[in-house]
Amino acid sequence: MDRFSLLLCVEHRIYREGLQKALADRPEIRAVLACDGPAHMDRHALDGVDSVLVDVRANPSGDAAASVRTAFAAACGKPVVALGLDRDENALLASVEAGAAACVTVDQSIDDLDIIVQSVLKGDLVCPPRISRLLQEHLLQISYREREVHRLTKLSSREYQILSLLKDSLSNKLIARQLGLEVPTIKNHVHNIIVKLNVQSRTEAAAMLRGAGEALQ
Questions:
Q1: Integer angstrom CA distances of residue 78 from 17, 20, 33, 46, 69
Q2: Structural domain of residue 161, as residue ranges?
Q3: Which residues of the chain have pLDDT under 70?
Q4: Cα 76 from Cα 181, distance rounded (Å)
Q5: What is the pLDDT of residue 87?
Q6: Which of 13, 37, 38, 108 could bridge to 112 as Cys pair (CB 3.0-4.6 Å)?
Q7: The CATH number of the domain where 52 resides is what?
């Protein structure tokens, strides 16, 4: 592939200068620019840059995904590679979800980084196989949750109100007393809820609302 340019977003000067020098010596890299971190990126710094490398360890809160999110928002569509991650599955997955096209862990080398960046510039998402599986599972969970939310939106306001009380484990009698309705009316609403949600029981209906709660807010 053609030679490419990188922007290093690294707060620590010694690390930044050492990495800049190591990368600049590689024949496939045209130029290595640098800034003090994702918060200092601007459009001028991105001119002619093919990919952004961000050091996630410099975040004061230790939130690697927050550093990636900041860099991704400022990168103007340039692929972002997260540097310095531990092999913690949750941190790696969070970084990919935040916008990282690839993650370089603390035990990987300059050669690994070079290969990863070249893969990213070909349009590939680069992460360990285990993280790829976790990401796929996560996307499937999101898809399933969206289907549940869609079914919940079919409920009337009264049915949703009753389902919320079912979620709190209230009986038909207690729900009727709280809403000022007759018990047979509550039973009819519960039956309609079960049919609309395509579930087998009131317990399953309540679990669906409990699981989809954050998505409905």
A1: 22, 19, 14, 8, 13
A2: 137-216
A3: 1, 59-61, 127-132, 134-136, 138-143, 213-217
A4: 57
A5: 77
A6: 108
A7: 3.40.50.2300
For residue 132, being part of any structural domain is answered with no
Residues contacting 117, CB < 8 A, separation 6+ = 4, 6, 51, 53, 81, 102
Q: Note the pLDDT tens digit of each residue in 162-216.
A: 999 999 999 999 999 999 999 999 999 999 999 999 899 999 999 888 877 655 5
DSSP state for residue 5 in the 8-state scheme: E
How many angstroms from the chain centroid is the CA of residue 166?
Answer: 31
Integer Cα distance of 109 and 116 in angstroms: 10
Contact 178, 170 (CB under 8 A): yes
Sign of CA dihedral 83, 89, 94, 97: positive
Q: What phi and psi, each to the nearest 5 degrees, are found at residue 109?
A: -100, 175
Q: Could you tell me if 123 and 141 lie in one domain?
A: no
Shared domain for 154 and 212, answered yes or no, is yes
Q: How many folded domains does the chain comprise?
A: 2
Q: What is the pTM of this model?
A: 0.60
Q: Which residues contact 207 (CB under 8 A, 6 or more apart)?
A: none
Q: How many whole angstroms separate alpha carbon 48 and alpha carbon 144?
A: 41
